[in-house]
Each structure stands twice: as C-alpha cells, then as structure tokens.
Specification:
Elements lengths: L10 E6 L5 H10 L3 E7 L3 H10 L4 E3 L2 H5 L6 E4 L6 H10 L3 E5 L6 H14 L3 E4 L6 H12 L5 E11 L8 H17 L5 E7 L9 E7 L5 E7 L1 E13 L3 E5 L7 E12 L4 E10 L8 H15 L7 H19 L5 E2 H12 L1
Parallel strand pairs: 1-2, 1-4, 2-3, 4-5, 5-6, 7-10
Antiparallel strand pairs: 7-11, 8-9, 8-15, 9-10, 11-12, 12-13, 13-14
Helix pairs in contact: 1-8, 4-5, 5-9, 6-7, 7-9
Length: 352
C-alpha cells in the first residue's frame, strides 16, 4: 500500500455499477469531505439516465475500461454482481487504482485470494464494503466486549429477515450473510473452527431464500444467524450473551439501538433444585447518530491518504468469504459440520 501518494486535493472516485447500491455510494462519496465522484460506469443506459439527472456534473460511460485508463482517477468502487468482482478488481489494480469492493469480496475463496494478491502487488488500498462494522451501534458493542463488561462471550444469536429482495443469481446466504458474519468476526476477534448451515428454497428452485448458519469458535463461543427473504416483517436484531451480562443490538430501532442487560445465572444447585438468577438493571449506552456508509467511505479515503489498513480490508473480506464458502459446502452436503480451517488450507494449497 503506497503512503502519501495523493496531492492535497479531493480524491477522484469512479463508481462501477449504477444499480441498487451504486447510487448510495455516489451520494456518499460526493458528500464526504475530500471526495469527488467524477465518473460512473454501467452497461445500461437506462440505469445511467437517473444518475445524469441527479448528478449532472458526473461523467457517465458504458465501458468501464475508459475510466480505468483515465490517469486522473484515483480510486474505483465496484457495485457490480459478485461474479465480476475478481476481473474488475484485478483490472483496476493493474491500472494503478485503489479499490473499494462491495460485499462480499468475491463468490469463491480463490477469487478473493486473487483480489487480495492483486492489491498487494499493486501496493494499493483494498477495502470491502462491510458497512456494518462502521455502524456506531456495532462499534459500541465491540467496545463493550473489548472492555470485558459482558464477560466471556457464550453465544451470539441474530435475525436478519424480511420479505424480499429476492435475488436470481445467488442465495440469501451470500446476500444477507456477509453482514452477520462480518459483525460476528469483528466482535469476537477470532475465526471459527467449524461452520454448519441448513436452508430451503421455497420460491426459486436451487436458490435458498432461508438459511440457518451456525459457527463454532476456538473460545467456545457459538454464533447463529437466521437469514431470510421470506418473512412477514423486517427484523435486524443481534443478541450477545456473556458470562456476566447480555446485550441486544436492534438496528431497526430509531433510538436505543443497543441495550445492556445485567442478567444471568449466578448459581444452580441440583441438591435441592436451587436456582439463583440475576435480574439487574437495563441501560442503553449513548450511540452517536451517523450514517454508517458515510463513515465507511471516509475511512476508505483516510486509509488511502495515510497508507493505513482499512478495518474491512481484503483479509477481513477473505475471512467472510471463507465462512460463506464453508457454509455452502455444509448446505450442499445435508447440513454437515464443515471445518473452516480445512477451507482455508485447501485454498492456500490451490494457490501455490
């Protein structure tokens, strides 16, 4: 990663992909101090038309190679289908650009490894769009865990469900799963030992719209995520149960997104069926109000300017892909428990 490579001017950014998420990146980079979205590429003129109307100063093209060849563009953001991430990222690095890739980093471990290697060879910044690790509420929970006030984490349980948006080329695990996996890995600071996944395809044959993902960690902690495009209401909750306290993070709530519960089991005695439970106070720590995506794009630009490693760098993105690929192997083998280390080791061997 190069350091101090930019003059004292706005970072000139190009966004590739003007579909569902691209316009959000365009807006946030345009609003971020020191950022300037100068161009957008998309294969569809129909998708580019509203971009031209909303951002008249932004150049629009249907051929991304024109932008990669432009020496005045410093960084590119990829908001394109997962299958395109590897070729586009490798091409962008070869052109000397810094690269922001929307989640997940890639659809396979091999593709993720190739992207990480290309960024390292080009000495350019690689950041993955795991937006939730920049969410102030998620960061607040991380601080509680780091401070030890919850005690040893016993398990994490999450629900990320809603009605839609159904995808046609990948399942709910690859769509919603990166959020919960990236958060859990960020919170626990360790990689799982094993992964297990079950699910069902109820609307489109072969494309799971509901999945139940479980991870087991060396510390003994368990993490479980219920992911669904087929639910009556939108739920975005994560519960962390520690040996001392418990915390609930509810992203749907407008206020008090984080609540800490001083509850637990103090003692159990089988002799006389004695049970001592603790039911103490509930408090909600102050969480700054800020758009996570805005914090994320500012962090990307800061890392480019300072030559520092992003919180959600290529290695972090690779870890998420390893979990998802292991989960897919479990899903396709009748929900068998799959070794996470085995996935990592086999992929390293294939790269040698």
């Amino acid at each position: 990663m190069r350091t101090g490579s930019l003059p004292e001017r706005d970072l000139r950014v190009a966004v590739i992909g003007a579909g569902y998420w691209g316009p959000n990146l365009i807006r946030n980079f345009s609003e971020a101090p020191g950022g300037d979205v100068v161009a957008v590429a998309d294969l569809s003129e129909e998708r580019l038309a509203p971009i031209r109307k909303r951002f008249p100063a932004v150049r629009t093209v249907t051929d991304h190679r024109v932008l990669f060849a432009d020496p005045t563009i410093d960084a590119v953001c990829l908001a394109t289908p997962i299958s395109t991430h590897r070729p586009l990222a490798v091409e962008a690095f070869a052109a000397g650009k810094h690269v922001f890739v929307e989640k997940p980093l890639a659809g396979t471990i091999d593709d993720a490894l190739a992207i990480v290697a290309a960024g390292r060879a080009a000495e350019r910044t690689l950041m993955v769009g795991h937006t939730f690790v920049y969410n102030p509420a998620v960061v607040a929970v991380r601080e509680l865990l780091s401070g030890g006030s919850l005690g040893q984490v016993q398990y994490v349980d999450s629900q990320r469900v809603n009605l839609g948006l159904h995808q046609f080329d990948f399942n709910v695990l690859w769509d919603l799963g990166p959020h919960d996996v990236s958060i859990v890995l960020y919170w626990l600071g360790e990689e799982p030992e094993w992964v297990q996944c079950s699910g069902g395809s109820f609307i489109q044959p072969g494309i799971e719209d509901v999945a139940f993902l479980t991870m087991g960690f060396p510390s003994g902690a368990l993490a479980h995520a219920h992911l669904s495009w087929l639910a009556p209401s939108k739920l975005r909750t994560m519960t962390v149960v520690g040996a001392l306290k418990m915390v609930v993070y509810d992203d749907v709530q407008a206020v008090e997104k984080v609540r800490v519960y001083d509850r637990g089991v103090d003692s159990l005695s089988p002799d006389e069926l004695r049970r001592a439970y603790r039911a103490g106070d509930i408090h909600s720590p102050r969480v700054p109000v800020a758009e996570a995506l805005q914090l994320e794009v500012r962090h990307f630009m800061d890392c480019i300017r300072g030559g520092t490693t992003p919180r959600s760098d290529g290695e972090a993105g690779l870890r998420v892909v390893r979990v998802l690929e292991a989960a897919m192997r479990s899903l396709r083998s009748g929900s068998a428990r799959v070794s996470y280390a085995g996935s990592a080791a086999s992929s390293r061997g294939e790269q040698q």
